[in-house]
């Protein structure tokens, strides 16, 4: 044994490197406050070639003053960085690769920029580390992708660097923690620098620099769905979900994905759900962003609690006036937190329901389609059966089909799809586009969003397939039975379908006591954004683009 | 549509109720500081019958001044509370039930108190809500088990209630966040109240009261294993793991469970691993508490990073002197965090390895044995294949056996067991004791720790079964082939075993080039606690009970 073998000069190279960065940037700072007009030079002084840079950019809020400034640095000074980012959502994110400032990216979602990204990949201007769910990417920030630089945003800071992130907490504390405690430099753009914060969300001890942005950080109203666009098929599917899934399994704690299918369900609770006598029995506790379409259910007394990943533009005053429902601080504004809400969505609730763009005959589904390298954000984290779960609930146990001594329950993972998309394109397909996208982009596995064996229920306008009850060929037959007039649907054999219906494996509306005639927009608790504002007593303040009055 | 149906008097009943509690307790407080000598009365003023009380008590640190005080309240005033606690580890935790102060418990682990707990359950003095992994319990604190009261501990506080949790962060910020933003009252016992904190870990904005404890909070050196107790069989198994799993699959990021099996592996890296030329190729990034047995590997340059759930008694100065390895703050002391480390363990690393007490022929395993209602802590969260994972790595992909277009990799979940426990009791059994324990205690499912279908490799002193390669009967045969002289092992058929070995499904030491003759204690990099102190250059300061000099 010898402690000398492998001895090294220093065990503090990382703090020393950080001290050098900070010393270089001090020319552009007054204490913890960086000069806004010298931000580009400050970033050049702080960032070294090849650094891992965690840039806050998610499906809603964006550290856009910092990303715009980063795109302006001199590539001779800063190049080849590895960008860690939740959502590649802005033009300048890809300019970083165009200009050679960044080379490699680890990310979760690239919706609006996915076409350009595919092009940069083909031109060898960009390398993909991997595509993650949000919390996988954060997890690796505590393992082997620890950031040397964190660029994040907050509402306000004080002179000591204490931060108020306000209602849109989202990823900020997680990224800051990963960098701050691994000798990374934490730089925060803020809308304002103030003397006294309404509350401290992140302590100044974790922050190196704050900089006042040229304008408030960018934020998108991503979770707002105008009820005007909800059609009769979505209402029919919503009725089936309430009747055939929420009521049947006693679902009290749940998460809804984004989309008109789930918005329809939210707006049916105070009408159709009420008529069925389900208030207080289902849908009490939510892990969900503050969807405006949830307002009527809240106002009608359906909802006990909502914990949020982030906030939603226009919902601030409403949330502040409903402290019994939302998680709020002593100052009255909301506290959201993506990691805790994803944790709640994975381990704390019994049901995830979301829509998809394609599904194969085994129930595998994806929102990745040809030419689009979109990624999934958070859906796979909630849209799977979490095998690390050990506590039981009524809903979870109701999916237990085995009588083995070590049998257990499972999570309800519900996928809603209309059998055809706009333009008559079938949703049910032989092979997911994701398979070809993955092959073409050289991805190690196909970018499947939700795996078929994790899906417990598929809902279409034709009916519900209770997939958790069956395996193999019967599972395929159950999917075909609800796949309508698509080619997959046409493989359904009437006798087999009749048997599946008799055994409760497939249910059509009439099997559930749901009348398609009743499925009309008059059943929605709100039929417009204006209705939602009225329900909220004028507290909901929708963004201009959603106003029609 | 009517906003009037279901209208309610107030949407702020929770903040109002909190304000009342705080007003009642103000008689015992000076600002945010509660009087230590009136703590029992203060708790009586703050807690209402039936409250959900989150009491910080985990496998290491304990808010024991608060738990001892809580056990002294008048049950006529405070009764029927629902205790939310990670580890029911102290005598007074169960006194709460004996005295009627608490009625129901939601928990993760009850090691030292599990016998008494079973008795209280039988006497109908205690109800179990559910048994969780740590992070499932936290997840529900953001859904339907939001705490009205949080009783936690920290090293230091200032007069504004800002907290320094120091190296043992663990659960504290999570419990505080769940309570603080849902109108719960946050009460923190601290070792000291100071003018200036070394750093702020939790902002005072989230804290209602601090109270100076009668003595520093209790903390256990749970992750210290004396190398003196590592035997030749554990060394042999450790060599097989390094050769047959870590090297073969290229495992760079990993988590080790507690135990002598994994301590042996840690101590073999600088000797056996070095000889195999594996330094830098395996075991670089760890999600792990600061195990003292990892010191020789760190000193020999094997380890790039260690992120921790909590700290370990005696490791403070060593960690402070190795800031390149551990996550530390600007003040030099460690920042741990159980949620982020569990997240890293679930989604960020490729391998979990742990020991168990019993395994059935399908590979299901449990540490719950007759008469003991122990629970599992964090193991199931890391000891399963996380189906929400979407990013690939070399190790993860190496377990992909299917050629389907939607095939994916999987996590390495390794279980190590000696075929017989002390006293000749077989580890491999027909039916887990957990099945009977579950039935007797009226649990909805049997308390299985790791499910067989999540286990990728089983390692015994006989060899390794590569379970991920096989299903059904072949899987059972592979387990039997390494189950030695147990009844299950005796069902192995020599011809079948020979075939499994030829196909790489089972490997015995000779198949791996591992010589049992070499497996002796002389191969350990440290053979005593004293050796570990020497390796650390005198920085590791073991607790008295581990000192023999």
Automatic annotation (TrEMBL), chains A, B:
A GO molecular function held by the record: transferase activity
Cross-referenced Pfam families: Mal_decarbox_Al
InterPro entries: MadA, NagB/RpiA_transferase-like
Top-rank taxon, per record: Bacteria
Cleavable signal peptide: none
SUPFAM superfamilies in the record: NagB/RpiA/CoA transferase-like
PANTHER family in the cross-refs: ACETATE COA-TRANSFERASE YDIF, MALONATE DECARBOXYLASE ALPHA SUBUNIT
Protein name (database record): Malonate decarboxylase subunit alpha
């Amino acid at each position: 044994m010898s402690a000398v073998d492998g001895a090294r000069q220093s065990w503090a190279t990382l703090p020393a490197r950080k001290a050098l960065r900070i010393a270089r940037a001090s020319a552009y700072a007054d204490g913890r406050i960086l000069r806004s007009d010298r931000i580009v030079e400050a970033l050049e002084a702080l960032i070294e070639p090849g650094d891992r840079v965690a840039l806050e950019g998610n499906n809603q809020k964006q550290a856009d003053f910092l990303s715009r400034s980063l795109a302006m640095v001199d590539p001779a000074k800063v190049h080849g960085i590895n960008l860690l980012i939740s959502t590649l959502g802005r033009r300048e994110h890809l300019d970083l690769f165009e200009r050679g400032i960044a080379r490699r990216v680890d990310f979760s979602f690239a919706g609006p920029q996915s076409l350009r990204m595919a092009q940069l990949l083909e031109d060898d201007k960009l390398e993909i580390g991997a595509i993650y769910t949000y919390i996988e990417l954060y997890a690796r920030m505590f393992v082997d992708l620890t950031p040397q630089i964190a660029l994040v945003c907050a509402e306000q800071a004080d002179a000591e660097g204490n931060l108020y992130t306000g209602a849109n907490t989202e990823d900020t504390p997680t990224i800051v923690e990963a960098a701050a405690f691994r000798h990374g430099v934490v730089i925060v753009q803020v809308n304002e620098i103030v003397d006294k914060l309404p509350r401290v969300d992140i302590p100044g001890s974790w922050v190196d620099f704050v900089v006042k942005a040229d304008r408030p950080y960018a934020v998108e109203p991503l979770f707002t769905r105008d009820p005007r666009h909800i059609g009769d098929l979505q209402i029919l599917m919503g009725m089936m979900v309430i009747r055939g899934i929420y009521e049947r399994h006693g679902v009290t704690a749940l998460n809804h994905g984004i989309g008109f299918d789930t918005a329809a369900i939210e707006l049916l609770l105070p009408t159709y759900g009420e008529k069925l006598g389900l208030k207080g029995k289902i849908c009490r506790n939510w892990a969900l962003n503050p969807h405006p379409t949830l307002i009527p259910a809240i106002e009608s007394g359906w909802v006990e609690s909502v914990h949020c990943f982030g906030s939603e533009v226009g919902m601030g005053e409403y949330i502040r006036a409903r402290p019994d429902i939302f998680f709020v601080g002593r100052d009255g504004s909301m506290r959201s937190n993506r990691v805790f809400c994803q944790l709640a969505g994975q381990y704390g609730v019994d049901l995830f329901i979301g829509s998809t763009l394609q599904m194969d005959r085994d129930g595998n589904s994806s929102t990745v389609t040809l030419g689009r390298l979109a990624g999934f954000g958070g859906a796979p984290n909630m849209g799977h059966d979490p095998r690390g779960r050990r506590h039981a609930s009524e809903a979870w146990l109701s999916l237990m089909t085995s009588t083995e001594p070590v049998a257990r329950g499972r999570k309800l993972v519900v996928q809603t799809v209309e059998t055809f998309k706009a333009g008559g394109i079938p949703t049910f397909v032989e092979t997911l586009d994701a398979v070809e996208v993955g092959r073409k982009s050289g991805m190690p596995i196909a970018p499947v969003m939700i795996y078929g064996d994790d899906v417990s229920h598929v809902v279409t306008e034709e009916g519900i397939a209770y997939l958790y009850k069956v395996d193999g060929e019967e599972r395929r037959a159950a999917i075909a039975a609800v796949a309508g007039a698509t080619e997959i649907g046409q493989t359904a054999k009437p006798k087999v379908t009749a048997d599946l219906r008799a055994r409760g494996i497939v249910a059509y509306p009439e099997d559930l006591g749901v009348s398609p005639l009743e499925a009309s927009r008059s059943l929605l608790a709100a039929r417009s954004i204006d209705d939602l504002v009225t329900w909220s007593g004028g507290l909901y303040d929708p963004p201009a683009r959603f106003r029609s009055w």
